[in-house]
Structures are given as C-alpha cells and as structure tokens.
Amino acid sequence: MRLTKILTRTCFILAYACWIAPTMAGNANDGIGQNIHISAQLTSYTGKPSWLLVIRDVDHNQTIPYVFDFNQNNNFWLVFTYGRNYLITASTLQFSPYRSMPCYSQRKIKNFCRLESNGRIISGESIQITITGKLTPYSDTFKCHVMRF
C-alpha cells in the first residue's frame, strides 16, 4: 500500500513536470529572439553617414532604435529583437558631411536597403544584410543584398 502511494505520487510529479516544462522553457527563451546581421564592405563613403534602424518588437510591445555610424570601409553590426515577431519601422541613412561639400549638407535616404516592413509583421525570420560599393547619397553607387533565413 505504501509503495503504491509513493509510485502514484512520483508518477503525478513526473507528469506535472512534463506538462509544465515546455512552458518554463518558452519563458526562458524570451531573452533574445530574432537577429539581423549587417556587414558593410565598402570601397569608400561620402562624408559621415549615419544609419537609423528602428525595430518594433510586437511580442513585448517595445520600440528599439539602433544608430550605426560608418567610420571605416568594413563594418559589422548585430541587431537583436527580444521576441519572435517584429516590424522594421524605419531605416534611414543620413549624410552629414563636412562643410566643404554643401551639396550633401543634409541628404537622407529613406527606406535604406528597402528594409521597412510597412506594417507587415516579420515572424520568425532573421535577416542578413551585406552592403557593398561606394556609399553616397545616390542609390546607384552601392548595393544592398538582403537575405532572410
């Protein structure tokens, strides 16, 4: 009788642990969700380009801004979201170069690399972006290769 009671309780505890374990594991992974890898392999760039990338984490109701300054020809950045579902609400590249170049004094490229999701939720996808060429305010001098995985 006593052995049956112990076995019954043990089975109950194991069944409860198997039922609750997936829920606990799901909450443990809330730290980092999807990510975006950015690699810039430029031959040159004009002025002092600065890239604003704004991520809207739908799962956690957060807006995460990232600002990247191009200060060399080869750059590598990582962007993290905390959830699995997100929007890219802004991707703006701004040139604020030296005063000796007035034609570029306040030039912006909106929707840089065509990353903005325009309300479409990106679900469970990470992105790898490779930027090559000359980074200037003219979009025909550089190329953005965007791969989703």
The poorly predicted ranges are 15-29
Number of domains: 2
Total of DSSP H or I helical runs spanning 4+ residues = 1
Rg from Cα: 23 Å
- For the record, the CATH architecture of the largest domain stands as Sandwich
Largest sheet: 5 strands, antiparallel
Structural class: alpha+beta
Helix content: 10-25%
CATH third-tier fold name of the largest domain: Immunoglobulin-like
Silhouette? globular
Mean pLDDT: 78
What is the CATH C-level name of the largest domain?
A: Mainly Beta
Strand content: 35-45%
Return the string of H and E elements.
HEEEEEEEEE
Distance separating the two termini: 57 Å
Q: From the structure provided, what is the oligomeric state, counting identical versus distinct chains?
A: single chain
Count of DSSP strands:
9
